[in-house]
From TrEMBL:
Name of the protein: MtN3 and saliva related transmembrane protein
Lineage of origin: Bacteria, Bacillati, Cyanobacteriota, Cyanophyceae, Nostocales
Compartment(s) where it occurs, according to its Swiss-Prot or TrEMBL record: Membrane
Signal peptide per UniProt: none
NCBIfam families: SemiSWEET_2
Membrane topology field: Multi-pass membrane protein
Family matches, as InterPro entries: PQ-loop_rpt, SemiSWEET
TM ranges: 6-24, 36-56, 62-79
Alphabetical keyword list: Membrane, Transmembrane, Transmembrane helix
Organism field: Cylindrospermopsis raciborskii CS-505
One Pfam family recorded for the sequence: PQ-loop
GO molecular function, one term: sugar transmembrane transporter activity
GO cellular component: membrane
């Protein structure tokens, strides 16, 4: 694995992990009132486009990071709808 991919994987790991506390807090408190629906939809649209871009480039770090972050945000969105 080359240095560029290592940097990409490290960046993707950190930005993906950043959403775990929000997801766990929402799950634990059963409340997502402080999470903006518009922000989630906008952010998830961006993640989806980054994911597609990564596929088009064949860039594993982009695919993994944005696919995982999109999955976490789908969970947050689901919890927001469930606990509304």
């Amino acid at each position: 694995m080359d240095f560029v991919n290592i940097v990409g994987l490290a960046a993707g790991t950190l930005t993906t992990i950043a959403f775990l506390p929000q997801m766990l807090q929402t799950w634990k408190t059963k409340s997502a009132k402080d999470v903006s629906f518009a922000m989630l939809i906008t952010f998830m649209t961006g993640l989806f486009l980054w994911f597609i871009y990564g596929i088009m480039l064949g860039a594993t770090p982009i695919i993994l990071a944005n696919g995982t972050t999109l999955f976490f945000n789908l969970i947050i969105l689901g919890l927001k709808v469930k606990y509304k």
